[in-house]
Amino acid sequence: MEWYLPVIWAGLIGTAVAMYVILDGFDLGLGILFPFTRKEEDRDLMMNSVAPFWDGNETWLVLGGAGLWVAFPTAYAVIMPAFYLPVIGMLLALVLRGVSFEFRWVAKPSHRTWDIAFAGGSTVAAFLQGVILGGLLQGIPVTERQYAGGAFDWFTPFSIFVGFAVVAGYGLLGATWLIMRTEGPVQVFARRAASKLLFAVLAAMAVVSLWTPLALDRIAERWFSLPNFYFLWPVPLAAAFVAYRVWRALKEGNETLPFVGTIILFLLGYAGLVISNAPYLVPPHLTFWDTAAAPASQIFFLVGTVFLLPLVIGYTVFVYWMFRGKLAPGQGYH
Fold first, then answer.
1. pTM
2. Protein fold of 4-322
3. Got the DSSP string for 40-109?
4. What are the structural domain ranges in the chain?
5. pLDDT tens for residues 209-261?
6. How far apart are CA 63 and CA 80, in angstroms?
């Protein structure tokens, strides 16, 4: 087997996951923040700030899931049975959120049900994504390359905690997005919310950073053995510095830096997770190479991806460029 093909596909899937977390994270974050705003015009402005983007953002989730199925079928066959319930719940929540996003506008003025659905769907989807991440980090029981656990093995204190951490993280992304894209009362609300959520996210990152090496020897060895420690300590140090800069930017009234800094903070956290688990795709048993499809299959789909991925990236850049700038109260795309 060509050793480099699984590495390329792992990089592509990892990139798709990172893009999804960042892009869909901030519009899920708006739904998480939705119940904390009461005025109709404020909620309208929040939804209008992501109206041109939200459905395109979810393209990256499809790319990540399809890439896993195509390039690493064994990993897909192990991971899906391990997380059937949270995955199905997450997808239903995303569908409910998408439907409510469109129906809320046509149901006015009797749209309270759709407000609840939008907020609930966003929060549940974010929470279950965190639960799935926590379940992956704690490890999946595998016997003879098949899932060997039960239907609720993912339901642990650690995975539940990570679920709440992701909700806080997406809320922070949503708040900093609103600071950058809106004006007036919504921006004031978002700045207050971002300050509180930043500390919640930092606390969650600290807990996960301590919990995982204390509970899992493989992660402790990865981070604290020598010479690894000398090379890896800049990652948490950089995260602390970026968090401080975000906090300063919020206090100084900067409108763009909090969002950019939060993205960098997420990427540093993501890098920490990759460092803790690579090259395992199904921790702690199966690596990229153990779960990879036949080289011919990987090459066949890689050719298609080479042509399609630039189109997806180009469309994403074009849409964000076309709808750049701020939205004032009363403005929107509906």
1. 0.94
2. Formate dehydrogenase/DMSO reductase fold (1.20.1630)
3. HHHHHHHHHTTTTTHHHHTHHHHHHHHHHHHH-HHHHHHHHHHTHHHHHHHHHHHHHHHHHHHHHHHTTT
4. 4-322
5. 999 999 999 999 999 888 888 889 999 999 999 999 999 999 998 999 999 99
6. 16
